Amino acid sequence: MTMGGLWPRLFIVLILVGVAASSRPLAFFMVGLGWLVLIVLIIYKGIYQGRYLPQFVLDALDRRERSRQDLARLQTKMIALDAEQLTSKVKARVIGQDRAIEQIARTLRRRFLARRPNKPLAVFCFAGPPGVGKTHLAKVLAEVLYGDPRHLHFIDMSQNSASTLFGSPKGYLGSDSYGQLTAALRDFPNSVVLLDEFEKADHEVHTRFLTAWNDGFVTEVSDGSKFSTSETIFILTTNAAARRISELARDESARPEELEQLVKAALAEAHFAPEVLSRIDEVFAFREIRGLDVARVVALEIEGMARQYDLQVAEAGIDPQILMQAIDRATETAGQGGVRAIARDLEQQIADGLVDARIAGATQVRFSAEDTKIHVIPVAEGSAPAAAPAGSS
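User: That's the sequence. What structure does it adopt?
Assistant: Structure tokens below.
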């Protein structure tokens, strides 16, 4: 300690001694005031400068601050949400569901501009047969809107109970940690909550979501904490009444309002909970992927699989016969897994060839068809295609 720092302290001590000699109550008051100032400084440095607080408290404050900053940034972005731009970006990655995508973009544009007090931004239901892009569309929508995977909360409703989603009461197993949904909304309330295969959850889980949609918050059971859903988009997917809904979606002449009522009626007949249906903002009917849309989906799938191995598809690198065969298979197996089944079959056929091409040092690949088999041909940078296939099934 320097002499410059010692003299002020010595001066304060002399003053306190003098005050104590003349008036003990005044001395006690000054000492108490000093302690109060010290406590205020500790709190200030602890909260605002990150000192003196346990790490778990600092982590919680950091999450809250990051969430607040993300929310402010996203709100600024969403105010100027361009429905046409959103539609274009999503259509480029989700094939065959143009009508649903256009309606969703228009609805979100309105909701981001005119918020509803104590309500989620939206509660959507994507209905239709499996393998037509319902879950994929929800994921793409979250990525395009927020640009950060942390703002997508995927929940498999067939695998989760009320306690795993909303926490357990004190004294019960799991009560020392938050539920999956409440923890997600605590950290990232401005997000898409994807409730996959919603109809497979039990009635208690359905009932818990009614508060989130009616009152604009969810409650963590373990400690009673409430987390807002006013910045959240809920998307339910369902395969209930799939055949009937697929038939309805084929009618291109039906008005959106009429189609929605027919789809809701079909879901009600399939024993979809009426209290849930009444709280869904909009239901979108997904049609089966057919014709050239199948070819477009398969081409996107092949490009995506190649990227997983740090490979690019060479220009005109997909044999048209591969796409035509995919269309034929989709027609033959209509209603039996949709494009998802075709994608699994593709992966089985080309994965080994992609591995071989990657090991061989290729940067690009081509895909050729031989009967029902697909060959992966490596293309070295700046060279012509190799004469023989690198791998086949």
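Residues 75-79, 385-393 have pLDDT under 50 and may be disordered.
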